[in-house]
Each structure stands twice: as C-alpha cells, then as structure tokens.
C-alpha cells in the first residue's frame, strides 16, 4: 500500500493512538548586500539572471570568497538561539545535481557548523511555553529558482518547459535544525507554527533578514514521524519541503499526522521521502526518496579556508544584541498594563510595533490598543491586508486620539476622521477641518437645537418633569441628529435637564 491511496485518520484519533515527533529545518535568507561567496548584488524582483557572477554561475576557475557580514549575521542568530559558537568551522561541498544549482554542488557546512547546541522557548496562544532544542545553525548558499511553464500545478510534472533564474543562486542562508521535538502530542501542529513564527520574529529583531515568508526569505522543511508510544523508538520520517507560511506549517503537520496514521493502520510502511505541500488542497504529495547525508558525498570545500571567529568579536556581537521578542513582549505588557489575553491578541495581530510607536507618539496604551485592535483591525480584515499595510501611521492615530482626548471630536466623529485619513485626505487635523467634523461646543447652538427638540416632543418634556428621566434619551438623540453627531452628548444632557427644570 502506498501513502497516496489511503484515507485520512481522524486527527484526534491519530494523536490518541500515536505519538507525533516533529523536526523543523528553517532556512533564512540573510539581508546582506551581496552574495555568500561573490560580490553579485542581492535585491528582490530583479530581472532574471542579471545578478550573477562567474562564481554564482559555477564557471570554471572562479574562486569563492566568504562574505564577512554573512558570518556576523550567522553568529548573531546562533547567540540569539542560545547556541555555542564554534572556535573553528569550515565549509563543505554537498554534491547533487539540479538545474538550479549551477556548480552541481552546494557550498554548505556539514560536520563543523558555526553554531550548535542551542534552544529557544516558544509561547503558544494560551500562554503555554514549550522549549525547542536546536541541534545546529549552519551557513550555506541558496540555489536558483526554477519556473515550470505550462501545466496546471506550476510543478515540473505536466509542464511544457522550465526556466531557470540564477539571481538567487549564492544568496547567503543560515539553516537552523532542531533536535527531535517530542512531548507535544496533539499540539504538535501548534508548536511547529509557534516555533517558526518565533524564529521569524527573532530574525527581524536581529535585523539580519527581512524575513518575509511570502517572498521566500524564510522557508521551513517540516519533518514528521509517528511512534506507538513516547517510549518507542523514533518512526520513519517524511520531510515536507519549502512550507512558506505559519498557517501552512500547522496544516502540513496536521495533515501528515492523519496521513501517516492511516498508512500505519492499514499495515503499510512510511517511506522516508520528501513531500510537496499543496496550499490550495491542504495535502502533501510524494516528492522523491529522501537522501541521507552519505548520499550527498560531503567533503571539505578546498577553495575556502576554515573560519575561526575571535572570541573577542563574538562577545562584542553578543553585547550588541537587541532585546529579543519574548523579553520585549513581557516588558511592554507590564508597561502597558494589558491582560494576558489582550497581549496575545496584539501579538497575533502583528500590532506590537504599531502600538509601541503610537504610545511613543503620545497616546495611552489603552487608546492605542482601542484603534489598532478595533476599527483598524476590522478594516484590515475587510480589505484583506495586514495592519502595517493600511494607509495610516502611528503618529496619525496618536493625533486622532489626541483630538478625542481634548474634546474636539467624539469617538463617533473620530471614526469618520479615520475614514478620511485612510482615504488619503490628510492627517486627522486636516480631515476635521475639511469635513467640518469638530464637536459643537457653543452652548448657544446646542440650546437652539435642544429647544427645537423639546418643542417637537412635549409629551417627553412632561414625563421628564414628572421625574421619569428615561425619555431624556429621545431628546438627546434628536439633538445629536440635528448636529450631525457633532455635539457632546454629556453636555447636551446637562443642558436639557437645565432647560426642562
């Protein structure tokens, strides 16, 4: 029986009867100006095959030179992941042929990585902290990019022809490999997602990569195996390649658990193979039999000398590390006074930087959260964009809340002002002026509107005079309508009671 002919086992049933073990290999493209071993420029979206040199094309006689900034970034990553930094390490040739690897080998690190024996704590959505042990973080170069043209899936099967772009070939990568992640049980998909998201946040905090998964700056290979009990030996693993979103990481793990359980239940054998993730259907399909290390015929790269980073340099890098995301979140939560659930919502919405900048611009934490997690979150969902992609800045939100705090506009008017800002009509002050949205604060104008409303509803006036204050709301509503919502409802109430009394 093969993996592609079985039905899926219910996920809850699969995790009751099998213990899932995951392992994740994350590749991050480093944000250097040039490639790992040559001075070719690195920039996203350039015309195909315009950012190449004889080295990145693998031409005979072209010799590589290590990018020092890439080494620094690799050390920064290793230190942030609580790794040991090697006193000396070296590059190796990983031999395999693909059209997007022009040299027919990848320059990587094998038995001597630059960083090893680390760990990070990842926080799940309910606040549970799960420790993931890091086996190694090593430097290597990226391959080029194949584009398969014709066919329905964008993959080589069924394509009419393929194009190869070598712009990406040679871009510096750091690959981070976990040790087997055990003990997650039915939360294995959630742990996998949180781990990759935590790494992405660390890369951004370290300023070593843009870490944009939609551009392929961060890619995850997700390994999964099942075993009967936590005490049993590890099962045969599959490796789902190049998963490039947090949601897909979670879905891929969940799918593979159900699929592998079905294979095992049917008496089948799990094949050690790479698998492709299909975002549209939410399934994995077989790729190729997974090679072991010996199949790549690693041997030391003869054209590059070993790297021996001085201890003084490493400590200088360590001293310059920024506050890491977990510590920053805890500090900000304490400063802002947010409850755990409120802070998790902010984190999940990707709003920490926006709220921090809004608070720095002079708004209270409560006021900043009100706008970013309320009206703006609704707008972002409606437009199917992120909060950062909305056409409004933290400074503008701070200005908007300042207008509310000063009494010049109320919350209802503020939403109209925000609409104007999002529509490109200018800053909040400009929108207020152009649209005439300022609160009516002239008692004379308010009294005129109140008298008109009282004259139109004499029965309400009599009820209020008789001690029944409930109907006052009807008068307030009429005044607010007459002033297009630009009156202060509290002041209107005071004037109504004075007028009737």
Automatic annotation (TrEMBL):
Protein's UniProt keywords contain Ribosomal protein: no
Sample GO molecular function, one term: glutaminyl-tRNA synthase (glutamine-hydrolyzing) activity
Class of this enzyme: ligase
Keyword Protein biosynthesis attached: yes
Reactions performed catalytically: L-aspartyl-tRNA(Asn) + L-glutamine + ATP + H2O = L-asparaginyl-tRNA(Asn) + L-glutamate + ADP + phosphate + 2 H(+); L-glutamyl-tRNA(Gln) + L-glutamine + ATP + H2O = L-glutaminyl-tRNA(Gln) + L-glutamate + ADP + phosphate + H(+)
EC number: 6.3.5.-
Coiled coil residues, start to end: none
PROSITE patterns to which the protein is assigned, alphabetical: GATB
Source taxon at top rank: Bacteria
SUPFAM superfamilies documented for this protein: GatB/YqeY motif (SSF89095), Glutamine synthetase/guanido kinase (SSF55931)
Xref: Pfam families: GatB_N, GatB_Yqey
Gene Ontology biological process: glutaminyl-tRNAGln biosynthesis via transamidation; translation
Keyword annotations: ATP-binding, Ligase, Nucleotide-binding, Protein biosynthesis, Transferase
InterPro entries found in the cross-reference section: Asn/Gln-tRNA_amidoTrfase_suB/E (IPR017959), Asn/Gln-tRNA_Trfase_suB/E_cat (IPR006075), Asn/Gln_amidotransferase (IPR018027), Asn/Gln_tRNA_amidoTrase-B-like (IPR003789), GatB (IPR004413), GatB_Yqey_C_2 (IPR023168), Gln-tRNA_amidoTrfase_suB_CS (IPR017958), Gln_synth/guanido_kin_cat_dom (IPR014746)
Asn/Gln amidotransferase domain segment(s): 353-500
Similarity annotation: Belongs to the GatB/GatE family. GatB subfamily.
Subunit structure: Heterotrimer of A, B and C subunits.
Function: Allows the formation of correctly charged Asn-tRNA(Asn) or Gln-tRNA(Gln) through the transamidation of misacylated Asp-tRNA(Asn) or Glu-tRNA(Gln) in organisms which lack either or both of asparaginyl-tRNA or glutaminyl-tRNA synthetases. The reaction takes place in the presence of glutamine and ATP through an activated phospho-Asp-tRNA(Asn) or phospho-Glu-tRNA(Gln).
HAMAP family hit by this protein: GatB
Protein name: Aspartyl/glutamyl-tRNA(Asn/Gln) amidotransferase subunit B
Organism this protein belongs to: Cellulosimicrobium composti
Gene (name only): gatB
